[in-house]
Design a protein that fits this description.
The structure is a homodimer of 468-residue chains. The first copy, chain A, is α/β, with parallel strands linked by helices and 468 residues long. The first copy, chain A, has 13 helices and 14 strands. In chain A, strands 1, 2, 3, 4, 5, 6, 7, 8, 9, 10 and 11 form an eleven-stranded mixed beta sheet that branches. In chain A, a hairpin with a 4-residue loop joins strand 1 and strand 2.
Chain lengths: 468, 468
């Protein structure tokens, strides 16, 4: 009863401002300017040059590694070189995980090497034991406690390919939930078929976790052909593997969110925030994850920054290169915490962190009074082959903590059909990016950020009451 | 003048038997039987099961490794299990090369790992030095002696993709000729863009050689994305890499050519010889190079062997799984040497060693009297989508030494468009084989071997006078 009353009161609180609020508007002059910016962006190679520079000069940049510091310096210098008005950093502290070496091999009559990589957060260790194969996380979770004593658990779940990446939900749960399920069944170590969709000898790394109270065990991913091979050998009879991981947590590290701003014409304290994450896994050079996102944000802000001051959008464009997304959204959570008091000043946010495929859909969940402005943005995006959808997929991982407490959020959905062929593997390299598709992304973010920043009125950012 | 007389005399010697010789014929009954065998082969999965077994149970099988011995035992057992009438081995001795570990990294301001593999035959060694890039072997060959003192030579030649693999000629010359050219210019070490056509972080290994009188230097191949990365960094300024190879020659090893026969109906001492090579490089599991070739030969012989004895072809089908092709055709040369006296008893030969892509062309260089029989074989192959061509590409690497001294030879050309994406890399695994394309290969070899073995007359095998 009390809950119903409270809900009614809350819905009244939400509904009232909606009725009082003037519709948010985007004028014709802004639309004309957005078209010009869009066409310029399509013909511009700034995005490509930025991602080429980051992936070549810094290369892989595991959070907490010496390359993390080089990436921060790179980002500061790149923002300045691109003419950003303000450039600064905000500290982000996290535990540091190190990968030193890793190997696995079949022992015995079918002796051969397996291509394996430690999951982020795994402890090191050497284990030689028989493998027990499971077809899914659910199957391993059903294993009786102690039933895997002295064994290595192997989940051989095949992730499915999809344009919107929806196969990654179940795929990544095998990575995050598998180790704890293996420990509960008594296993000495855990291996999984990588959460990926390719057919190469590339294991896919990624963060895992261990439930409280469990003693972590060495946990690793096999490439898909290696998982196939192990499954065939298990089907032939008892198979032992020797897993040797040297990795683990090693103290704390403080990295930085690196932020650049193109100052707004008339409301410089209000911001539209875009960006990507600066860290990458260590196996590839972090081109699609997420050099592309950083480059798209930096290039979009840069293009808006080249407008004569009087033609700048009303609000500021803020581009954030987030620290340590990969190991738990540390940069995004630090940003949300630091800027919570300024939440209403965040007009709208969108992060690019799903590769460099073409954007095919745009969506923003906003109050009714902003729907007309959202439709205007969609109208300017449509010639890029971008469809307006009612329901989006959120605003990217690093803005999700801020969105959770009330920041208005838009989503520009990229075609991720091939994303999980490369994601978290050595193959995440520059050559996998199509420069034309990247330019389409830059054009979309430029149009989006410009129009959102120039709109008369807001998109509904407002602190949410904390969930009870 | 004397040369002209000699040539005239020789042409007379060659021409005389041609005029006297009856045309080689293939009868209608044999053609009917070939059609039946072809359709059975297309519906049969023996080839797939054989290559699955070899690549799974033995896995990688570098010549001279402990897996080489396992592969020999596997081949003997498999021939027996497939019902071959005779199974035996013939020794093949060669120097043993071992790969123990290998790594490379950019050092300094752009520090990052590079994916590298030692070339077969390379010595080990640790070298940290500046890289000098060349666009081709020819460019490195022009470098002045001593001009690369204290440096690492890097050839960044991009191999081209082609259905018939013709890009591999210049591509593999960079591998075989680069190290000696680097030594002549004074280099401490040699790295090359892999001779491959893919875009993965897989370096392509393969044998190299050092010219007499030169002191070998550590020599390695970079994956194509790593070569791109190194080229970009070199373009930005001085770049040092640290190369660390632990590999080298280590004594001699004696492996075996493994041979299985389906005995002929009426001329059991005459043979049609088919097969592939049993060894592989160590990085992949040797599925397309050359598990497929072994499987195609074994399955074709097996299918012919299932015929009732009275319906067997006149001659014997001999399937050879050759030892150590990769490091210098050791198995093929041993076979030619051992069987030189029986050369005329070799009716016709063809080896499969270009992957598992569909066969699209058939050719046999024979005397005129055998052309009608060749046309009959082509006629039986045509429904498989195989075109009859006048000029073939030889009969595969391992039969080339025997062909050079006079064995008649046919070629069944496979579509190798994707072959050099996988060749000599970790990605040469079972999943890269299309079972239907493999069955088409088996059908083609079955038809070819059956008809060649049953022909009335020969295809021109005769000892060649040694080239002066």
């Amino acid at each position: 009863m009390r809950r119903t009353l409270l809900a009614a009161a809350l819905s009244l609180l939400v509904a009232l401002p909606l009725q009082a609020q003037q519709p948010t508007r985007i004028g014709d002059a802004a639309m004309t300017q957005a078209v010009t910016l869009r066409e310029r962006a399509l013909a511009d190679d700034t995005g490509w040059k930025v991602v080429e520079s980051l992936t070549t000069e810094v290369g892989p940049r595991l959070a907490g590694s010496e390359a993390d510091a080089r990436a921060v310096e790179w980002a500061k210098a790149k923002f300045k070189a691109l003419g950003y008005d303000k450039v600064w950093t905000e500290p982000v502290t996290f535990p540091k995980w190190e990968r030193r070496s890793e190997s696995a091999r079949i022992v015995g009559a079918h002796a051969q090497a397996l291509h394996v990589t430690a999951l982020g957060g795994s402890p090191g260790g050497k284990v030689e034991a028989e493998v027990v194969r499971f077809e899914s996380l659910e199957a391993l979770e059903k294993a009786a406690p102690g039933s895997l004593a002295g064994k290595i658990a192997f989940i051989d779940y095949p992730m499915t390919r999809a344009k919107d990446g929806r196969g990654y939900g179940p795929g990544s749960r095998v990575r995050s939930g598998g180790p704890s399920a293996a420990i509960r069944a008594g296993a000495l170590a855990y291996v999984m078929r990588s959460a990926g969709t390719d057919s190469h000898r590339n294991p896919h790394t990624g963060i895992t976790r261990f439930d409280d109270g469990l003693k972590p065990i060495p946990s690793a991913a096999l490439s898909l052909p290696d998982a196939d091979q192990l499954a065939r050998l298990v089907a032939l009879g008892q198979v032992k593997i020797a897993l040797d991981l040297d990795c683990g947590w090693n103290g704390e590290y403080t990295s930085q969110n690196v932020i650049g701003e193109i100052t707004g014409r008339s409301k410089p304290d209000d911001v539209v925030v875009i960006g990507g994450h600066l860290d990458s896994w260590d196996l590839g050079t972090g081109a699609i994850d997420d050099g592309a996102g950083v480059a798209i944000g930096m290039a979009a802000g840069h293009l808006i920054g080249t407008l004569p001051k009087g033609q700048r959008p009303a609000r500021t464009i803020r581009v954030v290169a987030f620290a340590n997304e990969e190991q738990g959204l540390y940069g995004g959570r630090a940003y949300a915490q630091k800027h919570a008091a300024d939440l209403r000043k965040h007009q709208l946010g969108a992060e690019s962190d799903f590769g460099a495929g073409r954007i095919y859909a745009f969506a923003a969940k906003t109050p009714d009074y902003a729907k007309e402005a959202v439709a205007r943005i969609a109208q300017a995006l449509a010639p890029l082959g971008i469809e307006h959808r009612e329901d989006g997929e959120g605003c990217g991982p690093d803005l999700s903590p801020f969105n959770a407490i009330g920041m208005a959020c838009a989503g520009l959905s990229q075609d991720g059909t091939d994303y999980f062929d490369l994601h978290h593997t050595p193959d995440d390299t520059l050559d996998k990016i199509d420069p034309k598709a990247l330019a389409q992304n830059v054009a979309a973010y430029t149009v989006f950020a410009f129009l959102a920043a120039d709109a008369q009125g807001d998109f509904g950012s407002a602190p949410k009451p904390a969930t009870p």
